[in-house]
Design goal:
- The longest helix has 41 residues.
- The protein is rod-shaped.
- It contains 2 helices and no strands.
- By secondary structure, it is mainly alpha-helical.
Length: 64
């Protein structure tokens, strides 16, 4: 029984999966934070561009 416990304690075969899961979680968290921080700024920039183009008389849309 003691040998089985020691074998399970020293077994590192599942360690890589846990490390990858933690890494993917941290990357996802960083992406979510970046999108939340930059989302408002990017939206504001596009709104300003749209307002400037509208006031300059540039037609909207992509028609030919």
């Amino acid at each position: 029984m003691l040998q089985l416990f020691n074998a399970l304690l020293l077994d590192e075969s599942g360690q890589d999966l846990a490390e990858y899961a933690i890494l993917i979680g941290l990357i996802a968290l960083a992406v979510i934070v970046a999108v939340r921080l930059l989302g408002t700024t990017i939206s504001t920039i596009f709104n300003r561009i749209g307002t400037t183009l509208s006031s300059a008389g540039v037609p909207s849309g992509g028609g030919s």
